[in-house]
Amino acid sequence: MARPGERRIPTALKKLFLFLNGDAIEVEGLFRIPADPSEVALIKKACDAGEVSKVLVASAGEARVHGAGGAVKEYLRTLPEPLLTWELYAAFIDAAALSDAASGAQRRSSVAGLLERLPAPNRALAQVLFLYLARLADHAHRNHMNSTNLAMIFGPLLLRPQHESVESMLHDPRVTSVVKYIIDSYDLLFTQRGAAKGESAADAVGSKGSGSISVPASPRSEGEVEALAGSAPPHKFQQIVEAIDESIALVQSKLLALHKQLEATDSMEEAIQIAKKIRTAKRILFHDDHKPAPGGEGGAAQDAAQKQAAGSPRTVGADKADPAADESQHAAPAAVVASGGGGGGPGLGLESGYDSQQGIRKTMEDAHVLLDDLRVAFPHLASADSLSPPLAYYAVYDGHSGTEAALEAAEVVHAEVIKQPGFVEGRMQEALEEGFRKADAHILEKSARDGWKNGTTAVTAFILSRTIYVANAGDSEAIMGQKQADGSYKAVVLSHKHKPTDKDEKERIRAAGGHVVFGRLFGDLAVSRSLGDPDYKKPLSEANYISAEPHVSATELLTDKDEFLIIGCDGVWDVVNYQEALDLVAGARQGGQSAGGAAQTLVKRALEKGSKDNVTVVIVYFTWRS
Fold it and tell me: Would you say 483 and 489 are in contact if contact means Cβ atoms under 8 Å apart?
């Protein structure tokens, strides 16, 4: 295929992707909502002057985001020829037609072959573009831009004939079809092919001047690739690319060094240490290999958990007093630790309930705890002079890669916290932090003994007298509904989401020698703090890449304006915002629903809005007594 050396693709396009790949990826209607022409003109002018980074800042509003989206479309529209080229237009159309009757393998082979035939810089830019569009489609529950929407917008920009005709106009549905297929099948079409050839998007792209990427007549030299990486802006997308390259180099060099070290030693102790390090490297490369196959390692535990999920909830303590809450529990395919339907003292009364649904997931990995009166399970607390009722505990545990860690956490976290001297001596932060540490150690020991390796997030709430102490690790959250003078409700956020993309979390991970890839720890875990996950903690791993240290908050309940507490896993918060949750629960309570009924209402809303996860909610009503 001819590769004219003078053809150029704007480098500013890359900077636009870097900007849009950040928080803007969740902006509703990105690329669909028309951009303000003045914003597009401003961004284009900055691009032409080589100053685009000055206008694409994280604090930019949605108008600037849509302007950047409009500028991307404008650049693609004004390229000398479409990114997928005039020459391959007919072949792509044929591939779209073939796909209706062909097997998946035939379709994949056909489209992958055409992508291979693109000029090197076109292929590189296509890889970056379709990676971004695939990520955008993954966030469709927030931005409302699925792969079909994106294909309808980008299809005519990327694939069109050199000369329009009535026949070519009839091919528009096929253009949409093949572009949608590339977006949906990005991992199959690009990552496997690129990995097999040892290529990355940067391998084919070199910089020439401040405004363009030139199509080379031959592959770029290593020095030119390094120069490109060095000149790239320090933005999220570039950091992802750099992290991938760095991780690959790190693992390759580590494996080689460990192999040589193993050949040179006769020491059993040293061999064991090498084995631990190999385990870390293996975990980076094959992050799903710990998942037990049906009937294999851990299969019995998973089968037992699934049987438990299909039956009645497991309870510890007194029976539920609230019929509506009881109905909610038995409707939920989840493991449960629960007690009491109400509690409290003369000033503050509590009513709790929950709902927990498996959703579209193949397994239920959530667990939860409701203990309205801790004195039932821990009688010694009744004689503690420093504690006055209510004494209650509520928690949601969102497991990943299995159920065992969440179930174990539901048994031990509160028990370990209560064991700490600080619990009865008024040093709750100390008690919570040490309790989480002890619980994590217990879970890690249990996982090593029983042969499972999953983990769980945790969001826990102790209500002691009139103070709520919340401790959380991961992305499950707790908020309090506070009624305002005008009758509306304000969210008091009691937890903190721990994500690998957070600045402090990322720095901690990198300081330990880890990497954040595609927003995940080593491309695997979407949280940076959890209980369990032994493959990311000592002694199986070289370092504690993931932390069990909780965020702790203390909030005093002062008046009857503080009405209820909502605790939920990310399956709720991914699709329902705080205000919507507050309004639903407040409306349910005002309508006479129990706490369990309100939980059902909120879970139902999350599922209706397309939550792709297990969905678990615990609701606690506050009742102020005279």
Answer: yes
Q: What angle, rounded to 10 degrees, do the helices at 578-590 and 595-608 form? A: 140
List, as one string, the DSSP characters of 420-433: SHHHHHT-HHHHHH
So what's the pLDDT on residue 172?
A: 79
Q: What share of the chain is helix, strand, coil (3-state, %, to 5)?
A: 50, 15, 35
Q: Which two tokens stand for residue 364?
A: 């239920």
DSSP 100-142: TTS-HHHHHHHHHHHHHHS-HHHHHHHHHHHHHHHHHHHTHHH
Residue 7 has pLDDT above 70, yes or no: no
Give me the CATH topology for the region 299-498+547-624. Answer: Phosphatase 2c; domain 1 (3.60.40)
Please state which of the ranges 50-64, 229-243, 602-616 shows the lowest mean pLDDT: 229-243
| pTM, 2 dp | 0.53
Q: What is the pLDDT of residue 276?
A: 66
CA angle 283, 287, 290 (to 5 degrees): 85
| Dist CA 354 CA 347 (whole Å) | 24
Report the alpha-carbon distance of residue 419 to residue 425 in Å, rounded.
11
pLDDT in tens, 172-191: 788 888 899 899 888 788 75
Closest CA to 471 of 434, 508, 444, 510: 434
**560-598, pLDDT tens digit by residue?**
899 999 999 999 999 999 999 999 999 999 999 999 999
Which of 282-296, 322-336, 372-386, 566-580 is least confident?
A: 322-336
Average pLDDT over residues 366-391: 92
Token pair in block for residue 183: 């977006």
Which of 406, 9, 417, 449 has its CA nearest to residue 209? 9
Task: Give whole-number Cα distances, 277 to 261, 319, 450, in Å.
Answer: 12, 48, 22
Give the integer Cα–Cα distance in Å for 496 and 436.
16
Instruction: Check for a shared fold between 8-233 and 299-498+547-624.
Output: no
CATH of domain 8-233: 1.10.555.10
Q: What is the dihedral of CA 311, 316, 317, 321, to 10 degrees?
A: -30
**Strand pairing class (455-464; 467-473):** antiparallel
Residue 399 amino acid letter: G
In DSSP terms, which residues pair with 368 in a beta bridge?
A: 336, 396
Q: What is the pLDDT of residue 103?
A: 60
For 393, list phi and psi in degrees, rounded to 5. Answer: -145, 135
Domain range annotation of the chain: 8-233, 299-498+547-624
Query: Whole-number mean pLDDT of the chain?
Result: 77
